[in-house]
Specification:
Length: about 140
Amino acid sequence: MGKIFLPKTAKLIISMITSDRYLFKLYEDVLIKRFGEVDIESNVQSFNFTDYYGEEFGKNLMQKLFSFCTLIRQDELAEIKIITNSIENNIENENIKNNMAYNKRKINLDPGYITLNKYILASTKNGPSRIYLNQE
């Protein structure tokens, strides 16, 4: 029988999806204030794998991934997802507020983590690779 143990810390990553390239930097600044410095960021890439966000965000979606210097406990992921959902909908940065038409969110933020053994991305959408994270 295996022993129960606390897992090692993990590398926090956050995926951003939007149709407005300008928002990547604005939201990066908000996330840095909350989670600390970014150590690695991906190039902007086309996100055309699904039409899920099309009605909300428009066409020509782009994705960018950010990795943060500070390591997290793996069990913090549910709390971090709640925080990123709040950031999507309740922007404190005036530059972002001024660019939000009709108070609709303009970006999707999905946090996750990387360890030596796995890549986990938190999402509120149901699916075969989704796991319950102890929050309603």
